[in-house]
Amino acid sequence: MAASAHAHHSFAAMFDASKPIRLKGQLTKIEWTNPHSYFHINVVDSKGNVNSWAIEGAGPGALSRRGFKKGDIKIGDTLVVDGYLAKTGARIVDGRLVTLPDGRIINGGTPGDGGPGDPTRARPAATPAAASAP
Fold it and tell me: CATH no. for residue 98?
C-alpha cells in the first residue's frame, strides 16, 4: 500500500459510497496506527483464489472508545467487514462495520470523515414538497 494511503483524508477523497462490499476473511496483519488503523485479511473469491485486502478504520483511540481493543483480535481470526470500495479499484475498503470473532459488531469508521453512518455527514436540505403541512 502506498504511503499516501496512510495519510488522513475524508471518506469521499478515497472511497465510493455507491460501492458497498462485504468481505469475510482471515486476519493476516494489524496496524494500530493514527489517524487510521489498518487490518489486512485474506479473502477467498468464488474461483478459489486468495486475495489480500486492506481494511481502513478509525485510529486506535476511537476504536477503543467503541469497545474494540487490541486484544480482541489476533492473526488467524476470521473477520466480517461491511464497507466501501476504494475509488482507485485497489483492494482497500473503508471498514464501516467489523464483526469480531466473538460476534460483536463495531463501527470502524473514522469520526468526522463524512462517510456513510457518520453523524457529521452532510444531509440534503428538505425540499418544499417534503416539508410537512401546517
Answer: 2.40.50.1010
pTM: 0.77
The pLDDT profile of the chain, 134 residues, written as one tens digit per residue, is 443 344 555 788 889 999 999 999 999 999 999 988 999 999 999 999 999 999 999 899 989 888 888 899 999 999 999 999 999 999 999 998 999 999 999 888 766 666 676 555 554 434 334 333 33
Residue 44 maps to a domain: yes
Q: Name which of 39, 134, 53 is nearest 90 in CA terms.
A: 53
131 inside domain: no
Say which residues have a Cβ less than 8 Å from residue 22's Cβ, sequence separation at least 6: 80, 81, 82
Which range of residues forms the domain containing residue 85?
17-113
